[in-house]
Amino acid sequence: MPEITAAPGADPLSPDADAARAGAAEPVGGPVEPATLTALQLMRRLGSGPRGLTEAQAEERLARFGENTVPSWRPVSWPRRFLGALRDPFTTVLLCLGLVSAAVASWGTACVIMTLVVVSCALRSGGEHQAGRAMAALQELVATTATVQRRPDGDAAPQVREVPVDQLVVGDLVRLGPGDLVPADLRLLRAAGLTVHQAALTGESVPVPKQALDAPPDGPPDASEPPHVCFQGSSVATGSGTGLVVATGADTRFAAAYRGRARRRGETAFDRSVHGIAWTLIRFMLLTPPLVLMANAALRGRGLETLPFAVAVAVGLTPEMLPVIVTTALARGAALLARTSGVIVKRLPALHDLGAIDVLCLDKTGTLTQDRPVVVRSTGPDGTSDPEVLHWAAVNSFWTIELAELPVPDALDEAVLAAADEQGTDPLEYDGIAALPFDPVVRMSTAVVRLPGRHGVHTVVVKGAVEDVLARCGRVRADGAETALDDAARERLLRWAAEEAAGGLRLLAVARGDRRPRLGGYADGDVRGLTFVGFVALSDALAPSAEDALRVLSERGVAVKVLTGDHPGTAARACRDLGLAPGEVLTAGRLAGLTGPALAEAVEGATVVARCTAQDKARIVTALRGAGHTTGFLGDGVNDLPALHAADVGICPRGAVPVAREGADVVLAEKDLTAIDRAITAGRNASGSIGAYLRITLSSNLGNVIAMLAAGLLLPFLPMLPAQVLVQNLCFDAAQLSLAFDQPAVGAARRPAVLRPRVFLRFITAFGLINATADLATFAVLAFTAKVTAGTDSPTMFHAGWFTENLLTQGMVMLLLRTGRRAAERRTVGPVHLAVTALAVVGLLLPVSPLAPVLAMSAPPPLYYLLLSVVLTVYGAALAFARMRYARRENGAGEPGGSVA
Ligand SMILES: Nc1ncnc2c1ncn2[C@@H]1O[C@H](COP(=O)(O)OP(=O)(O)OP(=O)(O)O)[C@@H](O)[C@H]1O
């Protein structure tokens, strides 16, 4: 427990210190070392004062020194975005294949490959630019602000107001409260019970105590941990403070640590699926050219002249539009979600991860309940009504709020104060001496007060979780007298509390103790040996939409786990009332020794884990992810931050503390579980589009590649010229962009949408073989046509015939293998229909158009088209049949986590 800091006394912000600002208007000199000067020296150096800057000074500094943003997070320029798109693995492979083609002077192939690269990079960077702009606009809605103290003009009194974080300048005075992000590097001028999370800077997961020191501490300076400096990138865990901005933007310690590096996070579900599939394909692509060369050399005695064809076959396998489709589908889904449900997806891949969630962890208060507690009763240790307990609780609430540098609303404190007000209790009959606001780790808040005029005695008043407060008590008050609190009495009180909690009530235990006044701050040791006073019981109504939302989540295959700081009884009762069977209720204490798979196994079977600290929540989420679950976490408090970071998708409501909003991937307009359901559905739909693209493109491409290899070995000429392969590829790619705009089928979002590389490979092999069979049947038709029709026995006719068949079968695959709405579900013509029509028109008309000779094609005779229609009818029927069987097997298999393949 950090030291409890005394209430304001002599400090650099007191009016006496105003002298320091005389003549100070400009930051003076070069870089300042915030830890080594006294507070007054520092203010003077930075041209600030204890009343803060004037608005004009701040404006002038902002114009001169720039905004408070970390440089590497600024928007990326167009050319950099385009070059970034080149780093995609598929593009890299295409570039390599292009270079190989150029090396063997196959200029046609090289040019078409380069066109493919440029088109896909342009589309991708364009899509990303649009998505980036849309995301930036959405993020504005949840932008973080800082509480700053400035003066309208030189003579006016300081005013405290919120400003966007990027508007802060050196010399500003900033106030910090629980859940705030430290918006710049700050030298603390005042602090009360302040602890900060510095994980982003030091990796340290436990909050570090900070305090205001006027002079630098004695001993050798600790550059990484000066106790009186807070660095940008850290966040307030408990307490409050006021600090002087000493560095902003690129000059902060955080910017220096991250210079040139993007913000990194661990591998997410999105990375695992999409990258997994990409790398499997790339291995195939790299293997293809040598295989084609070897087969042609061995069976046909052909040499290096087959290389351009081999390269074209490898290119034919590439889903080069994947990055474009991914960006478009996710950006479109995110924009729609923001418009229709007020849900803001801050990181595009998080939308995919939302769709893949199969475990959703959430806190109880404010998610399952409304977080509008109302005091029901206050009782003494013997369970009889006792107004004095509420009185002491109110004294604690009032002074912990009053003595905070930046008080934040706390629903429990507000409820206690409202009830005390009704009862006629006046906390002002005491003077506040010091306070330690609520700390979710120790689960209590402490106020030190004294009766005016009673100088020799300070009273420590504590309220908090029953087990934790009782652990600090040595005595109990009963019938106006105090007796020792023995083990039996302690047990009895805990049992009584458990019964109250099982009835759904939230309980606060209240204790107090008189002390001889202390000089300096109060420390943890002073909050012991207390006398137990009694309980305040509060009720918190259930959230009206929670029951339906939980049912829908379970129907959608999402297991819900409640990770709460509250009492196990209260949490279990809330779950039961909402129709969620709590099963065996665990407490974090019981899981303390478990890690990794053992922890995941223990939590797997449970619905509720109670008495969780922030670290417990994160540990559980990490263990569930480690066990292969795509895990979401919904929370809104400071104690949810580590879990928000640990989850595949961190979700918080817009009203969450700033640090939670900053750390979350998805921000909800309201803390409403039904919004999560809509977000999950949007995620599954977006993944559905991506899955449909991969399914369609890969099975079609694989079929073509098999057919090309077979024909290459059977025919005396190349079955398709490299340029024809690539033109056909380009047409197919363009048509498939429509999949990103396809409407999802009704019921398409019934299960978590995971893109599983193995399931994909099974799927594309089966459907690729059907496609290859149709191609081989077409070859037979072409051979037959050539035989019965004199004068058409030429490679050009063969090329044209196969080109037409390819585009038509590709169109059919698009219609039959997409997840989008089928004709029966929609009346209007969708983008996929239009794209397929265009594909069919090109396939039928190009070989008979004036462009045909350029591509070395000549029109096949009418007989071919007649026979082709038979092949296509049989192919369509086979495809539909296989698709039906596949869907039936997938649904029947009940594979956990489901898949979109
Ligand atoms: N303002 C407060 N003052 C004193 N004690 C508090 C206060 N707020 C909460 N507590 C106690 O600490 C316990 C844990 O609180 P915490 O905020 O960690 O979780 P919670 O809000 O109860 O649940 P959840 O994790 O579901 O949001 C509560 O059960 C309560 O007993």
TrEMBL record:
Residues 1-32, 208-227 are annotated as: Disordered. It is a multi-pass membrane protein. Gene3D superfamilies: Calcium-transporting ATPase, cytoplasmic domain N, Calcium-transporting ATPase, cytoplasmic transduction domain A, Calcium-transporting ATPase, transmembrane domain, HAD superfamily/HAD-like. The chain crosses the membrane at residues 702-721, 759-784, 796-817, 829-851, 863-882. InterPro entries: ATPase_P-typ_cation-transptr_C, ATPase_P-typ_cation-transptr_N, ATPase_P-typ_cyto_dom_N, ATPase_P-typ_P_site, ATPase_P-typ_TM_dom_sf, ATPase_P-typ_transduc_dom_A_sf, ATPase_P-type_domA, HAD-like_sf. Its EC number is 7.2.2.14. Its main location: membrane. It catalyses: ATP + H2O = ADP + phosphate + H(+); Mg(2+)(out) + ATP + H2O = Mg(2+)(in) + ADP + phosphate + H(+). The keyword Ribonucleoprotein does not apply. It is found in: Cell inner membrane. Keywords: ATP-binding, Cell inner membrane, Cell membrane, Magnesium, Membrane, Nucleotide-binding, Phosphoprotein, Translocase, Transmembrane, Transmembrane helix. It comes from the Bacteria. Residues 15-32 have a biased composition (Low complexity). It holds the Pfam family Cation_ATPase_C. The keyword Coiled coil does not apply. Residues 33-106 form the Cation-transporting P-type ATPase N-terminal domain. It is an enzyme of class 7 (translocase). PANTHER family: CALCIUM-TRANSPORTING ATPASE (PTHR42861). Belongs to the cation transport ATPase (P-type) (TC 3.A.3) family. Type IIIB subfamily. Mediates magnesium influx to the cytosol. This is Magnesium-transporting ATPase, P-type 1. It comes from Streptomyces lunalinharesii. The gene is mgtA_2.
